[in-house]
Amino acid sequence: MADYCKLIIVGRFTRDPELKYTPSNDAVCEFSLAWSKKGGGKETSHFIECAAWKKSAEIINQYMKKGDPILVEGELKQDRWEKDGKKFSKLKMTVYSFQFLGKGGQQDEQQQAPPQQQAPPPRSSYTPAPPAGSPPPDFDAPSGDSIPF
């Protein structure tokens, strides 16, 4: 069986997304997400750095900002580097697809706002092709012969 890693996170932007371009002119948008988990009478917050590529990067950068909710799907990538003789590593998420989840309380404000204000962008979902050299985000479904019923 092949190894496989897939993350699905619903969280909020901890900062505004940052759009950059590689030397080959590919767009990359870096951002950080936070989510909370309640359990055992306490709430724990978690954070992860994310990167979206190409058209996904441009769309996320255009419509999202700090505090906005989003659902992202992708895989983990471990960055490793060395500085002053010390080794460091950090897990990041490479985003393959996403879905905007709305703008929180802004929908209520929109209904009360004067007509000259623009509405927030509609909910959307975009599933781009993964970056070159990356494995596809889908896994191989079992064949009909291997289903136990």
Descriptive notes:
It is a single chain. This protein has 149 residues and is mostly beta strands. The protein has one domain (1-106): OB fold (Dihydrolipoamide Acetyltransferase, E2P), CATH 2.40.50.140. The protein is built from two helices and seven strands. Strand 2 and strand 3 (27-39) form a beta hairpin. The longest helix is centred in the middle third of the chain and has 10 residues, at 54-63. 15% of the residues are buried. Mean pLDDT is 78; it is low at 105-123 and 134-144.
Descriptors for this entry?
five-stranded mixed barrel, OB fold (Dihydrolipoamide Acetyltransferase, E2P), 46% strand, 7 strands
Give the helix/strand layout.
Layout: E1 7-13, E2 18-21, E3 27-39, E4 42-53, H1 54-63, E5 69-83, E6 86-100, H2 106-112, E7 125-126
Parallel strand pairs: 4-6
Antiparallel strand pairs: 1-3, 1-5, 2-3, 3-4, 5-6, 6-7
Low-pLDDT segments, ≥5 res:
105-123, 134-144
Taking all Cα atoms into account, the compactness measure Rg is 19 Å
**What is the CATH topology descriptor?**
OB fold (Dihydrolipoamide Acetyltransferase, E2P)
Distance between the termini: 21 Å
CATH class: Mainly Beta
Q: In percent, how helical is the residue content?
A: 10-25%
